[in-house]
Write a structure and sequence with these properties.
Largest sheet: 6 strands, antiparallel
Helix content: 10-25%
Structural class: alpha/beta
Order of helices and strands: HHHHEHEHEEHEEHHEEEEEEEEE
Number of domains: 2
CATH topology of the largest domain: Hnrnp arginine n-methyltransferase1
CATH class of the largest domain: Mainly Beta
Oligomer: single chain
Strand content: 35-45%
C-alpha cells in the first residue's frame, strides 16, 4: 500500500489545486453525482482519499444521508475545517488515517474515489478502493468509477527525440549518450498532439471495479496496432478512461480535452520505421514495483516487419 512519504505529498495544497482546477476531471465527477440522484440521495457514501473534501461536498449537496471522508494525509484536518465552514459537519465525517487501518463505522451504499494515477495504475491507489469495496460496501453497493480501461498506441516524436536524447551525444565536447540511454527507461508524462499518433489504439487493460480481485494487480496484453501512415515510431503512448456512471465517462485520450493526467510516453530504445498498413505487435506487462507498490514496472516489446524493440521502464 502507499507509504507515509506518499501520503505526505498530499499534504501540499498545490497538488489539490491542480486536481480541482482540472475542470474536465472535477466537472465529470460533479455530473456523475448530480445526474445520478438514485445513487446518492438518502445513501451512505464513502469517499476514499478525500483530499480537500470536494467530492464529499458534492455528495452531501446531492442529498447523501451521510458521507465518510477518509484521508491519510494532514489534509484531513483542512478537509474537516472545510466541512465545518460549509455547515456540513452533521452530514460529513472526516476520518484521518489509512483506509486499510480504519474500522468501518457502518456499511456504505456508494464508494466514490478519484484514485487514478498516471498511466491509470501509478500510485497503487486502486488497491485501497478494492479494500474499501470488500470491507465497507454493502452487498449490491456501487463504485464510482465503476470501470477503467487503459489504452496504447504508437506515436512519433522527433522533437523530444532530439531534445531529450540526441542532445546528450555531445555535451561540452563529451560523449554522454549513456545518459540518454538511461533516460529512455524513464516514462514521460506530457500532452501529446493528436497529429503525432501513428497507429490506431488498443485496450491493454479493462478493469471492472466491482469484480476485479484485490490481488489482480498485474496486467499483460498482446495486441496488434495498425500503422495509419508511413512514419517513424519513437514511443508507445498510454492513456485511460473511466466510467464514472453509465452516462459519464472521464477520458484522458489525446483526442479529448487535456487533463492533469495528460498521457504517458514510453520511448523505444531506437526508433522504428513503419509503413502505412503495417501490423505492429505490442506486448506489454505492468506490475507493482517490488517493495514499492506505489510504483510500476513496465516491460514493452514492439515488433514490426521483422524488427523488434524491447525495453523496461519504472514509474
Amino acid at each position: 500500500m502507499p507509504s507515509d512519504d506518499y501520503f505526505g505529498g498530499y499534504s501540499r495544497t498545490d497538488i489539490h489545486a491542480e486536481m480541482i482546477g482540472d475542470q474536465t476531471r472535477t466537472r465529470a465527477y460533479r455530473r456523475a453525482i448530480f445526474e445520478t440522484p438514485e445513487l446518492f440521495e438518502g445513501k451512505v457514501v464513502l469517499d476514499v482519499g478525500c483530499g480537500t473534501g470536494i467530492l464529499s461536498l458534492f455528495a452531501a449537496e446531492a442529498g447523501a444521508k451521510h458521507v465518510y471522508a477518509v484521508e491519510a494525509s494532514d489534509m484531513a484536518e483542512v478537509a474537516r475545517q472545510v466541512v465545518e465552514d460549509n455547515g456540513l459537519s452533521s452530514v460529513i465525517t472526516v476520518l484521518k488515517g489509512s483506509l486499510e487501518d480504519l474500522i468501518p463505522p457502518q456499511k456504505v451504499d456508494v464508494i466514490i474515489s478519484e484514485w487514478m494515477g498516471y498511466a491509470l495504475l501509478f500510485e497503487g491507489m486502486m488497491q485501497s478502493v478494492l479494500v474499501a469495496r470488500d470491507h465497507w460496501m454493502k452487498e449490491g453497493g456501487t463504485l464510482v468509477p465503476k470501470r477503467a480501461r487503459l489504452y496504447a498506441c504508437a506515436v512519433e516524436d522527433f522533437e523530444v527525440e532530439a531534445k531529450r536524447f540526441a542532445w546528450w551525444d555531445s555535451v561540452y565536447g563529451f560523449d554522454m549518450a549513456a545518459v540518454a540511454d538511461h533516460s529512455r527507461h524513464e516514462p514521460l508524462v506530457d500532452t501529446v498532439d493528436p497529429h503525432a499518433l501513428v497507429t490506431d489504439s488498443a485496450i491493454i487493460a479493462d478493469i471492472d471495479l466491482h469484480t476485479v480481485g484485490l490481488d489482480d494487480n498485474e496486467h499483460f496484453a498482446d495486441v496488434e496496432l495498425i500503422a495509419l501512415r508511413t512514419e517513424t515510431v519513437h514511443a508507445i503512448l498510454l492513456w485511460f478512461d473511466v466510467d464514472l456512471t453509465n452516462e459519464v465517462v472521464l477520458s484522458t485520450s489525446p483526442l479529448d480535452v487535456p487533463t492533469h493526467w495528460k498521457q504517458t510516453l514510453f520511448y523505444l530504445p531506437n526508433p522504428l520505421k513503419v509503413n502505412r498498413g503495417d501490423a505492429i505487435r505490442l506486448q506489454i506487462s505492468i506490475a507493482p514495483t517490488p517493495h514499492s507498490p506505489r510504483g510500476l514496472d513496465i516491460q514493452i516489446d514492439v515488433a514490426a516487419n521483422g524488427r523488434e524493440r524491447s525495453s523496461s521502464y519504472r514509474m
